[in-house]
Amino acid sequence: MAAVVKYLHSINGRWKYRRVVPPRLRAHIDGNIGEFVRWLGAANGQPSPEVLRRYVEVGEEFEALVAMAEKRAAGQ
């Protein structure tokens, strides 16, 4: 059984996590980034347990970044 994992892409033999930062929040993130990208490891078929572990960590990092930007946008 296969699962669909959002934001995970196999590019040139490596796994990449990529999310677009909402345009209204970009000005509230240091560097004014438009997308959040992290490389997770080698791609040899299905993602390894290590890649999936890093996927979870990087997803949490992105969510924390967006939460911080939301607070800045609200003036907190």
In short:
The chain is α+β, with helices and mostly antiparallel strands and 76 residues long.
Tags for this model:
elongated; 3 strands; 76 residues
Model description:
This protein has one helix and three strands; from the N terminus they run E-E-E-H. The chain has 76 residues and is an alpha+beta fold. A three-stranded antiparallel beta sheet has the order 1-2-3, covered by helices on one side. Strand 1 (8-11) and strand 2 (14-20) form a beta hairpin. The longest helix has 25 residues, at 49-73. It starts with 7 loop residues before the first strand and ends with a helix.
Low-pLDDT segments, ≥5 res:
none
Order of helix and strand elements from N to C terminus = EEEH
Q: Per DSSP, what share of the residues sits in E-state strands of 2 or more residues?
A: 25-35%
Percentage of residues in helical conformation:
25-40%
User: So what's the overall shape?
Assistant: elongated
Number of strands: 3
Number of helices: 1
Instruction: Label the structural class.
Output: alpha+beta
- pLDDT averaged residue by residue: 93
Q: Largest sheet, order of strands side by side?
A: 1-2-3
> What is the makeup of the main sheet?
3 strands, antiparallel
Terminal residue distance: 45 Å
Radius of gyration using CA atoms only: 14 Å
